[in-house]
Design a protein that fits this description.
This protein has 608 residues and is α/β, with parallel strands linked by helices. It is built from 18 helices and 19 strands.
Length: 608
């Protein structure tokens, strides 16, 4: 590349170290052509380089000798390639894709943009290997042992089709979601945007057999797009498959460096599309500790029988990949009072929404129409008192049909273009098998509940939308995932058990605790180097662990005391006792809820 562009290209590589691991560069006027003895005999006479003129590839060359004068004013960059990765996979027990070495591994252009710098801009290019499901975590760990960003995969699962366009002009959205600035649809936008694995941009296609999972790594062929983007009068690049063997040793991480903060765990978070996420062992253990803390049973309801391992971890991993989240809450258990709502639910929903806002995700809350004014005032007061940084749109849904639910969730009712990619229910009344809604005392409150359950049912049939339910008694929306355990172990469970399931069921002694724990788990994940790199696809800069905006958005005793005080001002009652006061589910804020909040934050912030 011309020496005038060398500093900018070096910084471009440093900003995108996953696909462009810079090993070194030559000094101007010290470019050395490889002697013929240095080129393997099988390559003699074959094209070794592509020639670029003003951004266009204009031909291939077997040698650069005819450009010796121009090369005196050029700088050569050496980038690490995927052969080192192949060796790591082979040592871990995965055979090379072409033992004879005759084919060139396929590489795919994605819709993921690299971080731009001084005219250099291009999409990420990736390579793919199908990995047997039963070897997935072991092989991913083997690759990560290479050190740096080039060994860690950038995506595991369906590469998806990017659908990141804004709604078309003139398209009609339901009145409840119009005017909110929700730039959906975003289906699979966080994936790679590869339409067909059978059509690579470079090399030979790879087949992904049944029982194996496509795993993608960043490719140095990303550099070809960068060369084109700068539109320099003259540049050269090695043809894919033509590599230079160096005497540099692989940057394999020393055994002592493979700490729990760098060792990945792989978790399946979606079946349609097939999607896995990764986080470090250390981050995963912290989130499991949060899950254990919130699962205590202060009301002796028997919720221990409902617990499923790693639901909080998987729910938070899925939320970390979401771009637009719809949260619902509201359990009108006090049907003889106005308002009939309880103090469990809204604080957890607002705490989660606050942290999602800090992560710059779209977020809205959906409630019963009769309770819209109440929740609107609660949110306004929360902003005024500093609990929330900005307003949260409050939506309603009256239902009516499957088509109505799909129209609410998707632009023009098209399941290919959903407006939301994750639904969360926190202490939301859930529909029982007989179609009614029951409080814990087996009282039917159906007349007070809108059919928001229909949105969760519709989401099950829309690829790319995941869901989480948070509950403490089994009659909450989403608890259909554990309904058999609810029927066997929870008082009145045979009647009150929610029949509508979510993808993830987070069980907590008090549902608010589940909302706090989800916010804390997201903080842990975004502070995890392994997960953060996976989210950004190894391109662009990473944010420092403990980012101030994230820290301020975490739940705190002070903020949650203010939040509960707001509910009390609006005459919202405690769920168990019916008291209008500083308690939730009959438990005092001080000495119970405050203590839980502080414990969750202490675990979250430990060693960040």
């Amino acid at each position: 590349m011309p020496r005038s562009l060398a500093p900018a290209f070096e910084r471009f590589c440093q900003a995108n170290t996953g696909p462009l691991p810079l090993l070194g560069q030559s000094e101007p006027e010290k470019w050395m052509l490889p002697s013929q003895d240095a080129i393997s005999e099988t390559r003699m006479g074959h094209p070794q380089f592509w020639k670029y003129e003003f951004g266009a590839c204009t031909g291939s060359l077997a040698s650069l000798e005819q450009y010796s004068e121009q090369l005196k004013d050029m700088v050569a960059f050496l980038l690490g390639c995927s052969f080192s990765l192949e060796e790591a996979l082979e040592k871990a027990g995965l055979p090379r894709r072409d033992p004879a070495g005759h084919s060139q591994a396929g590489a795919y252009k994605t819709t993921v943009p690299c971080a731009t710098h001084a005219g250099f801009c291009c999409p990420l290019v990736v390579t793919m290997r199908p990995i047997p499901k039963d070897k997935l975590e072991r092989l991913v760990r083997a690759c990560c042992s290479l050190g740096g960003e080039r060994g860690q995969p950038v995506h595991i699962g369906d590469p998806g089709v990017s659908r990141g366009k804004s709604p078309e002009q003139g398209s009609k959205a339901p009145a409840a979601v119009s005017g909110l600035g929700l730039q959906m649809p975003l289906r699979f936008k966080e994936l790679l945007g590869i339409k067909e694995l059978s059509k690579p941009a470079y090399g030979d296609a790879m087949v992904c057999p049944p029982g194996e999972v496509p795993v993608f790594w960043p490719s140095l062929l990303t550099s070809l797009g960068a060369v084109s983007s700068c539109e320099t009068p003259l540049a050269f690049a090695s043809i894919p498959g033509c590599t230079v063997m160096t005497d540099l040793k692989d940057a394999k991480a020393p055994a002592g460096c493979l700490t729990p903060e760098r060792i990945p765990e792989v978790h399946h978070i979606s079946q349609d599309p097939l999607h896995y996420s990764i986080a470090s062992v250390s981050a995963s253990q912290k989130i499991r500790e949060l899950e254990s803390m919130i699962s205590i049973d202060p009301g002796n309801r028997g919720i221990g029988h409902l617990l499923c391992k790693d639901e909080l971890l998987k729910a938070s991993l899925s939320l970390s990949h979401a771009r637009s989240v719809l949260i619902t809450t509201g359990f009108p258990t006090h049907f003889n009072h106005e308002p009939p709502e309880e103090t469990d639910g809204p604080p957890g929903a607002v705490a989660l929404a606050t942290f999602l806002q800090a992560l710059e995700k779209e977020v809205a809350i959906i409630v019963d129409q009769r309770a819209w004014n109440l929740h609107q005032k609660i949110v306004e007061d929360a902003v005024e008192q500093g609990v929330l940084k900005m307003q949260i749109p409050i939506l309603t849904y009256q239902g009516g049909s499957v088509e109505a639910a799909q129209a609410f969730l998707c632009k023009n009712g098209d399941p290919q273009t959903p407006r939301f990619d994750h639904l969360v229910a926190i202490e939301r009344a859930g529909r029982a098998a007989d179609g009614n809604y029951y409080n814990a005392r087996k009282m039917n409150i159906k007349h007070l509940v809108d059919p928001i359950d229909d949105l969760f049912l519709a989401a099950k049939k829309i690829p790319g939308i995941s869901s989480t339910g948070v509950g403490d008694g089994g009659n909450e929306l989403g608890m259909g995932k554990v309904k058999e355990a609810v029927r066997r172990h929870i008082r009145h469970g045979d009647v009150i058990a929610c029949d509508v399931e979510a993808d993830f069921a987070v069980i907590a002694g008090v549902s608010n605790w589940g909302g706090y724990a989800l916010a804390c788990a997201l903080y842990i994940l975004y502070s995890c180097a392994v997960h953060s790199q996976y989210l950004r696809k190894a391109v662009g800069p990473s944010r420092a662990p403990g980012d101030q905006a994230w820290t301020q958005a975490l739940p705190s005793v002070i903020k949650e005391e203010k939040m509960l005080g707001i509910l009390v001002q609006h005459k919202v009652r405690s769920g168990v006792s019916g008291i209008v006061g500083m308690e939730v589910d009959g438990l005092p804020f001080h000495n119970t809820h405050a203590e839980m909040i502080q414990k969750l934050v202490d675990v979250t912030m430990a060693q960040v």
